[in-house]
Amino acid sequence: MWERTISISSTGKTFSLTGWKIGYTVAAPELSAAIRRVHQFVTFASPTPLQAAVAAGLDAGEAYERQLLHFYTARRDELVAALSAAGFGVSAPAGTYFVMADIRPLGWDDDVAFCRHLTTEIGVAAIPPSAFYHDNYQSGMVRFCFAKRPETIEQAASKLARLSQG
Known about the structure:
This protein has helices spanning about 10-15, 30-40, 50-60, 60-85, 110-120, 150-160; strands at about 5-10, 25, 90, 100, 140-145. By secondary structure, it is of the alpha+beta class. The protein has two domains: about 1-60, no CATH class; about 65-165, Aspartate Aminotransferase, domain 1. Strand 3 (about 90) and strand 4 (about 100) form a beta hairpin.
């Protein structure tokens, strides 16, 4: 399917470089020609040092990818365990560095109210998914990010334990 496949990615997702707005595509020459024409009118410039860093990252190979996978798997497992222990309904995600956690077992259904409480009373931040919907759809879920240092997740786990205590 090479001749009809376009793979699109970004360094923010590939290398966990939030804010590095450098994307890339891989495609057969006939397909990439159209992408390059559009790109010419969409993007003015990307910082040269960032481009060089991305090229080095893409050349890093499997050893880097294994290390990155190990790092994020450990962080994910730590956060999922902390959320479960605190009383959230949660399952480990397979392809992101966000965990969606069900707040209904804790007696909440409003994600915005819960996230405010979590931030002001517990000292841990989460994102209310209703912010991503035009009609404030309530799923009873909140979103946590585990792209954090191990000690940050440990501190959050300690604070989240207070939720199950009262």
